[in-house]
Design brief:
With about 110 residues, the protein is mostly beta strands. The chain has strands at about 5, 20, 25, 30-40, 45-50, 55-60, 60-65, 75, 85-95, 100-105. A four-stranded antiparallel β-sheet has the order 2-8-7-6, with no helix packed on it. It has a four-stranded antiparallel β-sheet with strand order 5-4-9-10, with no helix packed on it. Strands 1-3 form a two-stranded antiparallel ribbon. A hairpin with a 2-residue loop joins β6 and β7. It is globular. One of its GO terms (cellular component) is T cell receptor complex.
Amino acid sequence: GDSVTQMEGPVTLSEEAFLTINCTYTATGYPSLFWYVQYPGEGLQLLLKATKADDKGSNKGFEATYHKETTSFHLEKDSVRESDSGVYFCALSDTVTGTAGGAEHKL
């Protein structure tokens, strides 16, 4: 079935360091791809999304590009801040079947 895979474990970074959180997916069709974030003590919120190949989602300095050839949607930020601390979830949604999957990564 459709699924996403993220890199393992918490990541600890110095302020202003470059961040990459890897996300690859397996899907039969062309899913929409999402990054969600949950900041400490808060609910889950959508960070960014891409609905088709080569789309680039961006928000709050974060970016992710939908690469169909490498089935990847890696989250990047040039300069992280302490306020970026949280749990980051990569997810996909197949608009044809309505199925969804996700994985989490703690920053």
